[in-house]
């Protein structure tokens, strides 16, 4: 379980990236973080990896306040989180296979174990044929899948994908999302930062919307609130909802066909 | 450790000229240090040779009686700083004279045992006792003259001391140069791989996992430089041994025993390892946060 408790993050240049942000993500959940650029989505990932510390507030993973972790405990924390970065962060002079194997190599696994695992993961993300190519020889979608493959090597409990579809054409984007859904179905908590409303609306998952560092919408809380107050939808509301869903699905279908 | 070794090897393979330049520069630096060390060890040995040779000679009068000689010997045994005394009779003096001048029959004909004085050769444990020993026996009954080579030994001692001090300074200076060379090269390596280091850090690599290869690389340069320098210095020494042997004459300095060279190799490898570690740790210092 991930808990952000009243998190505020201000940088030395006085930019406030997050302001009093509070949310809880349960084990196995699939959550979208949406909002315009600079809303604070990437800051959430950086806080999660303890790359930066919050100015105030507490980040807890499995009940543990990660800002209290000692320096030598950070690597283990980071290996628990599969991070897929917006700019992929792949090594140019390493092949796809070597990039994917990077984290496994840190874990002192044998070469045979690493080779088998990398092969399996590359097959899962559909990159088996490209294993010996270098990042410069790959398309945007392939780069993104390599980054996902690398994030999966530690069987992470949490996967955070920062703009995984940002640089991709709609078809590749959908493939990536399907892949993330598959990972989520296997039990991994998946957090996706995106500004693609189309994908978000089509998937009907929890949405945390950020704007200027503040949470302006959290669909889970709204749902819980509705459930608590026993509010029932009117017939008109239901019709409207149904219409919305249909439109989104048509859009998504079109994108897939393209 | 294995991973660090393979990664360090990969880094060196990917930029072979940089690695080669580092090894060559370190080899030259260590080579000069090794040669100077050999000169230092040699000069110590030469000094030791002169110090342990009889340096004070007491010549007796022709009519000196045996008991007078005995008394001088007894007195010397009570004098501090005397490590050894050797009595040379007139006959022994003649045979030494004959041996030294065997190529010159004219000189041999003119000299008989009567002309040569009997003498006592004294070895001192340290050059500072010369004066004391000489004054203890001067003027004793039967003693004709006391001779000692104070100037030669004093000059040699001051030379050896100068070589030792300048050698330590030179080795220190060369060590500093080597550290700076490795520091610069490893620093360049680290900064060229800054992005990779950052990615590894974010993916959960430990400090040692990231910096290990750089430390191994720095130590490798030190060790390889030390090994090649030792080899080169040994070759130079072996090549110049015939010349040095004729130059040094009786001084038993050469050939240098292999054990000595082996100990020198070990010393240099340790020196190279220490220098490599210090330099690469310094280079990695700013990345240890």
Number of helices of chain A: 9
The SSE string of chain B, one letter per element, is HHEHEHHEHEHHHH
Beta fraction of the residues of chain B? Answer: 5-15%
Number of domains of chain A: 1
Helix fraction of chain A by DSSP (H/I, runs of at least 4): 40-55%
The average pLDDT score of chain B comes to 81
**Which architecture of chain A does the CATH hierarchy give at level 2?**
3-Layer(aba) Sandwich
Rg of chain B, nearest Å: 30 Å
Number of domains of chain B: 2
Q: Quick check: average pLDDT of chain A?
A: 82
Strand coverage percent of chain A: 15-25%
Name of the CATH superfamily of chain A: P-loop containing nucleotide triphosphate hydrolases
How many beta-strand elements of chain B?
4
Outline the low-pLDDT stretches of chain B.
none
> Which CATH class of chain A?
Alpha Beta
Helical fraction of chain B equals over 70%
What Rg of chain A is obtained from the alpha carbons, in whole angstroms? 19 Å
Largest sheet of chain B: 4 strands, antiparallel
The residue ranges of chain A in which pLDDT falls below 50 over 5 or more consecutive positions are 232-241
Structural class estimated from helices and strands of chain B = alpha+beta
Subcellular location (chain A): Cell membrane
Organism (chain A): Candidatus Chisholmbacteria bacterium RIFCSPHIGHO2_01_FULL_52_32
Function (chain A): Part of the ABC transporter FtsEX involved in cellular division.
Region (Disordered) (chain A): 216-258
């Amino acid at each position: 379980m991930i808990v952000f408790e009243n998190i505020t993050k201000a940088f030395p240049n006085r930019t406030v990236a997050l302001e009093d942000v509070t949310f809880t993500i349960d084990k196995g959940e699939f959550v979208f973080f949406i909002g315009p650029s600079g809303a604070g989505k990437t800051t959430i990932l950086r806080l999660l990896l303890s790359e930066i510390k919050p100015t105030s507030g507490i980040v807890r993973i499995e009940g543990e306040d990660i800002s209290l972790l000692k320096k030598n405990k950070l690597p283990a924390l980071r290996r628990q989180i599969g991070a897929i970065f917006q700019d992929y962060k792949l090594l140019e002079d390493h092949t796809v296979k070597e990039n994917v194997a990077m984290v496994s190599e840190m874990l002192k696994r044998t070469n045979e174990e690493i080779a088998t695992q990398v092969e399996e993961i590359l097959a899962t993300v559909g990159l088996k044929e490209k294993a010996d190519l270098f990042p410069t020889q790959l398309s945007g979608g392939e780069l993104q899948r390599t980054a996902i493959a690398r994030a999966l090597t530690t069987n992470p409990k949490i996967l955070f994908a920062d703009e995984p579809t940002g640089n991709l054409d709609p078809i590749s984007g959908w493939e990536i999302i399907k892949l993330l859904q598959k990972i989520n179905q296997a039990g991994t908590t998946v957090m996706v930062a995106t500004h693609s409303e189309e994908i978000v609306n089509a998937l009907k998952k929890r949405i945390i919307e950020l704007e200027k560092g503040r949470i302006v919408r959290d669909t889970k809380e709204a749902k819980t609130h509705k459930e608590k107050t026993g509010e029932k939808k009117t017939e008109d509301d239901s019709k409207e909802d149904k219409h919305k869903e249909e439109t989104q699905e048509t859009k998504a279908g079109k994108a897939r066909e393209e | 450790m294995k991973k660090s070794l393979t990664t360090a090897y990969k880094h060196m393979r990917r930029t072979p000229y940089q690695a080669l330049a580092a090894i060559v520069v370190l080899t030259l630096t260590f080579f000069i240090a090794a040669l100077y060390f050999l000169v230092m060890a040699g000069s110590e040995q030469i000094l030791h040779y002169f110090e342990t040779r009889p340096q004070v000679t007491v010549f007796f009068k022709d009519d000196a009686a045996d008991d007078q000689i005995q008394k001088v010997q007894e007195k010397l045994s009570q004098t501090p700083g005397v490590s050894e005394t050797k009595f040379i009779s007139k006959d022994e003096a003649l045979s030494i004279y004959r041996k030294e001048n065997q190529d010159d029959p004219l000189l041999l004909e003119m000299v008989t045992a009567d002309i040569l004085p009997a003498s006592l050769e004294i070895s001192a444990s340290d050059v500072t006792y010369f004066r004391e020993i000489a004054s203890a026996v001067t003027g004793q009954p039967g003693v004709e003259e006391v001779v000692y080579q104070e100037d030669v030994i004093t000059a040699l001692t001051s030379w050896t001391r100068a070589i030792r001090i300048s050698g330590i300074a030179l080795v220190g200076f060369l060590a500093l140069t080597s550290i700076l060379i490795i520091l610069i090269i490893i620093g360049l390596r680290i900064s060229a791989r800054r992005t990779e280091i950052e990615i590894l850090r974010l993916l959960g690599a430990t400090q040692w996992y990231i910096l290990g290869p750089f430390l191994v690389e720095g130590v490798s340069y030190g060790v390889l430089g030390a090994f090649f320098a030792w080899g080169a210095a040994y070759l130079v020494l072996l090549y110049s041994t015939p010349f040095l042997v004729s130059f040094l004459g009786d001084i038993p300095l050469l050939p240098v025993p292999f054990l000595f060279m082996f100990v020198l190799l070990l010393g240099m490898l340790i020196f190279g390892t220490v220098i490599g570690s210090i330099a690469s740790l310094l280079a990695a210092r700013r990345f240890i946060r």
